[in-house]
Amino acid sequence: MIDLSTTFGNAWFPSPLFTASGCASSGKELAQFIDLREIGAVVTKSVMSKARHGRPTPRMAETPSGMVNSIGLQGPGIDAFLAEDLPWLVSQKARVIVSIAGETVEEYATLARKVRSAPGISALEVNISCPNVENRGMVFACDPEASRRVIDGVRKTLGGELPIIAKLSPDVTDLVSIAKGVVDAGADGLALINTVLSMVINLDTMRPHLGGKTGGLSGPAIRPIAVRAIYQVHEAMPNIPILGMGGVSTGRDALELILAGAKGVSVGTASFADPAAIITIQNELKELLAARGFTSVAQAVGFAHRPLEEPGNNS
Amino acid sequence: MSSINKFSSRLIATVVSNKRVGQYHQILLNVGEMVNTCKPGNFVAIRVGGDNAKMILRRAFAISRVSLTGPYGGSMELIVAPFGQGSKWLCAQAEGAEIDLIAPLGTAFGIPTEPVRALLVGGGYGSAPLFGLAEVLKNRGCRVDMYLGASTGGKIYAPMEGKRSVNVLRIYTEDGSMGERGRVTEPIPGLIADGLVDVIYSCGPMPMLRAISEIVAGSDVVHQCAVEESMACGVGICMTCVLPVNDEDGNVSMKRSCIDGPVMDGAFVAWDLVGKIPEAHA
After folding, report:
1. Which architecture characterizes domain B9-105 according to CATH?
2. Which pLDDT score is estimated for B102?
């Protein structure tokens, strides 16, 4: 038996496989294809204070082994989310990580205050790195000081109970310093990585293809970027739990992120291709761990960092 | 369980046949008992390119029709235009090839409980799901007229056997190479003025759907249209295939064409806002 359980702060999960925010809506749509109780947690689509239409279409372009999306945080707003979507997930006995996004430091704190009093939440993801916002200055995660202020405000509002996972962008020069800043400000864990800012030009119109012009690249194309980001941050802060994501489509990919230092792995774009992908990945991961002599996920977290003289389990 | 796509499942189907019909491919898939839950208007999401493909997203195709009594059991027919990389791959699959699909997805055309006079309007290969719909309507005692349009005759899809289910089939091409010269929407105002139609079912390019919605506005004619927006997932989680739709109170919100559609009431679609963003929520 492989012990798949993992923890983020004081939150316990029976599996390290989570949905990725923005790739599972609020869970209902996937429930036809998977049993939500079987996965680690549903990470809900980042919700803002108010209902939001998002960006104009086209919102998507497929690229080699990836896709660029430009949704722009369409959503019902926090009040409707807490009144309708969250209670449904809780009634299904799914573990829930609520993801929030704001335009100002104050909006994040307001969202955190509302989430604090909602029952049934395992952790809070603070998405400070969505690339699809009108003003690129809003991407807090590209600015160490702004990142710190957001997390500080959320931590003070939330108190010490609910674990905070800060979702960071790979589009920065020094990811480790931003990661350290948000941990100093009170983040219990880090979500790495958000999509990579990108663009596709349509050769018929000879203009940017997406309605929002720029978008976020996801899928297998960005997996090596995720592995690098997780490896660097885990190396700098080995005790900070990392929720890894970026192009994970197979058990092999999930294990790669775990070896780099992820305590949990989110499946995002792969669910678009197969809504049951997360279950397949979970089963494959179990076999791959066993084949390498691990008896738990915890043993494999960050295993790629072991000293050179220390062999692998089965060598 | 949720109520979204409650009959959907993933299946590995085999290609029963793949024939070229004009500019299109008629592909028959063996899907077994899945046919029992497929309704006209539903679509299928198909994985393309094989195991090592760089194409990571499924392709959505309207289910043209299903048959319970084919030589191999339940079968699903698709009419595919080999236009992009994914549809070219599908059109290249030979008899016996295995196809990874998820179906049935999305909303279906509403079938009236009383016999009505129905007009089915198809643009290009958008006519494909209308033949299956025509059979269902005919069996309900409806009068079924079908008008098909395209830029040129080669883009009209109108199989011989499909004509059995319709009372009148008219074809319009913009270049006059088949049927009458002109747009398929041109005769509709006259039909409505003469009180010859109760419900219009349409499938085809968005400008055609919009034009029909504008024609029926102010009349009692109901317009059920199958919309088309580019999709990443087909199951409601990616939020890419949205279009602006009014609710009963006139508030616009961005609805997913995969789960709130593809079949929508044309009167509620905010056609002038497609590709744009409505005013921010209050």
Report:
1. Beta Barrel (2.40)
2. 97
Specify the pLDDT at position A313. 66
User: Which three-class secondary structure state does DSSP give residue A220?
Assistant: helix
Q: For residue A66, list chain B residues with Cβ-Cβ distance below 8 A.
A: 56
Angle (CA) A173 A176 A178, round 5°: 75
| Predicted local confidence at residue A137, as pLDDT | 52
What is the mean pLDDT, run by run of 10 residues, along chain B of 282 residues?
83 96 94 95 96 93 90 90 95 97 97 95 92 94 96 90 88 96 96 96 96 96 94 95 93 95 97 88 58
Residue intervals in chain B for CATH 3.40.50.80? 117-273
- Does the CB of A186 have a partner CB in chain B at under 8 Å? no
Which domains are delineated in chain A?
Answer: 6-51+75-196+219-305 (3.20.20.70)
Q: What is the pLDDT of residue A134?
A: 60
Choose the mutation target among A28, A36, A44, A53 for the interface with B, i.e. most B CBs under 10 Å. Answer: A53
| Chain B CB within 8 Å of residue A55 CB | yes
In A84-143, the residues whose Cβ lies within 8 Å of chain B are 88
Q: A142 catalytic, yes or no?
A: no
CA A116 to chain centroid: 20
Residues in chain A, pLDDT under 70? 133-138, 313-315
User: Are the beta carbons of B54 and A64 closer than 8 angstroms?
Assistant: yes
Counted across chains A and B, CB pairs separated by less than 8 A come out at 125
pLDDT of res. A293: 97
Give A67 to chain B, closest Cα distance, Å: 8
Q: How far is A211 from chain B (nearest CA, A)?
A: 7
For tokens 């064409």, name the residue: B257
Of the candidates B6, B274, B281, the beta carbon closest to that of A51 is on B281
According to DSSP, the β-strands at A6-8 and A11-13 are antiparallel
Looking at residue B281, what is its pLDDT?
63
Q: What would the two tokens of residue B264 be? A: 């929508």
Q: What is the DSSP string of B90-134?
A: HHTPPTT-EEEEEEEES--PPPPSS--EEEEEEEGGGGHHHHHHH
According to DSSP, the residues that pair with A61 across neighbouring strands are A68
ipTM: 0.92
- The architecture that CATH gives domain B117-273 is 3-Layer(aba) Sandwich (3.40)
8 A C-beta contact, residue B77 and residue B30: no
Burial level of B178, CB count in 10 A (0-12/13-18/19+)? middle
CA atoms within 13 A on the CB side of A188: 20
Provide CATH 2.40.30.10 ranges for chain B: 9-105
Q: Which position among A42, A68, A126, A130 bears the catalytic label?
A: A130
Report CB contact under 8 Å: A275, B240. Answer: no
Q: Which of B136, B92, B96 is nearest to B13 (CA)?
A: B96
How many angstroms separate the Cα of A293 from the Cα of each of A250, A287, B44? 19, 10, 41
Kindly determine whether residue B4 and residue A67, on different chains, have CB atoms separated by under 8 Å: no
The CA distance from A124 to B210, in Å, is: 43
Distance CA A82, CA A79 (A): 5
